[in-house]
Amino acid sequence: MAQNKYSILLPTYNERENLPLIIWLINKTLSESGIDFEVIIIDDGSPDGTLDVAKQLQKIFGEKKIILRPREKKLGLGTAYIHGIKHATGNYIIIMDADLSHHPKFIPQFIKKQKEGNYDIISGTRYIGDGGVYGWDLRRKLISRGANFLARVLLRPGASDLTGSFRLYKKEILEKLIAACGSKGYVFQMEMIVRARQFGYAVGEVPITFVDRFYGESKLGGNEVIQYATGLLRLFATT
Ligand SMILES: Nc1nc2c(ncn2[C@@H]2O[C@H](COP(=O)(O)OP(=O)(O)OP(=O)(O)O)[C@@H](O)[C@H]2O)c(=O)[nH]1
Ligand SMILES: *[C@@H]1O[C@H](CO)[C@@H](O)[C@H](O)[C@H]1NC(C)=O
Ligand SMILES: [Mg+2]
After folding, report:
1. What sign has the CA pseudo-torsion 102, 105, 108, 114?
2. pLDDT tens track for 74-83
3. pTM
4. Pocket test for ligand 2, best of 27, 60, 61, 63 (most atoms within 8 A of CB)
5. How far is the CA of 2 from the centre of ligand 3 (A)?
6. Is ligand 1 within 6 A of the CB of residue 77?
7. Domain spanning 5-238: CATH superfamily
């Protein structure tokens, strides 16, 4: 069998300060572990010039390692993944945030765990073992905990972190899940795991530490909370 290849989908919106460091860390961690990878950057017309930074990085790391799939305007995360996966040449897909909340050092652990149990999905979790969250105020922690608790009680998904977005998928599994999921925003990540269980896919978990963004704006507000609550209820009613 040919060696595995890992395509990392990196959606960006105003991540000019974060992008060079995350790319440097990904290359260092994966190259030193002998992992074959490519990074697909999906920038949605960031007004801060993220795409120019991405072009510079492509010159440094090469067109085989850094693939640019920009879109004209901010079209949302769900469709960014769909757009990115179309260009992925790996047989495994890793989804992570570009804002340094997700540290690439966990990727080799995801890969090891996936191989151990031939899992369809590995989900990074803040809520078991050594996992945790750094840099959030009490309000944000309570919202996240509450959202997860509510979802676990209502949906019984068999995973401990439903709204996290640091995950590894077998490519064909991710394609099937995306096709089956209708949600947007935070509910999208949750629906992916809930449907995975529904379809009988094997989900493994790896504890991760999540660090709040240092650069750039957070977007969690009252709107997201309401959107989440209605999305959760809709999922509850349809699964
Ligand atoms: N391409 C694209 N990327 C996006 C969009 N919205 C967010 N992103 C990126 O998706 C990742 C996660 O978004 P974040 O804004 O960090 O979401 P969050 O972690 O829930 O919230 P904060 O970190 O507190 O702002 C980051 O890499 C963003 O740059 C979008 O509409 N299109
Ligand atoms: C990528 O990482 C490897 C291993 O650390 C290193 O040898 C190589 O120079 C890095 N590439 C770039 C462009 O920094
Ligand atoms: Mg973030």
Report:
1. negative
2. 998 888 999 9
3. 0.94
4. 27
5. 34
6. yes
7. Spore Coat Polysaccharide Biosynthesis Protein SpsA; Chain A (3.90.550.10)
